[in-house]
Amino acid sequence: MPMDAHVIEQMIKAAIPDAQVTIRDLAGDGDHYAATVISEAFRGKSRVQQHQLVYQSLRGQMGDVLHALALQTGVPDQR
Q1: What Gene3D superfamilies is this protein classified in (predicted)?
Q2: Is the pLDDT of residue 79 over 50?
Q3: pLDDT tens, position by position, 20-65
């Protein structure tokens, strides 16, 4: 069963409360998404560590219900 983009967003925000999350369904099948996640929690962390935080928030759904997630992460702009 495909995973809804709204569910992905909720899971990420539950684990990373300040996250700004944008989800796009790449193939229209509910299995292949692109996500952009911006959070202060990523500051000082490597890109790999940032991605690990997001994958942990999905609680084992990657590779199972959620087949593919192209991920971009970053910190908020400081102005």
Answers
A1: BolA-like
A2: no
A3: 999 999 888 777 889 999 999 999 999 999 999 999 998 877 666 6
Two tokens, residue 30: 């509910």
Residues facing 36 on adjacent strands: 22, 72
Q: How far apart are CA 49 and CA 25, in angstroms?
A: 24
The answer to whether the CB of 21 falls within 8 A of the CB of 13 is: yes
Give the whole-angstrom CA distance, residue 61 versus residue 16.
17
Cα 50 to Cα 39: distance, rounded to the nearest angstrom: 9
Cα 55 to chain centroid, rounded: 7
Residue 57 burial (CB count, 10 A):
19
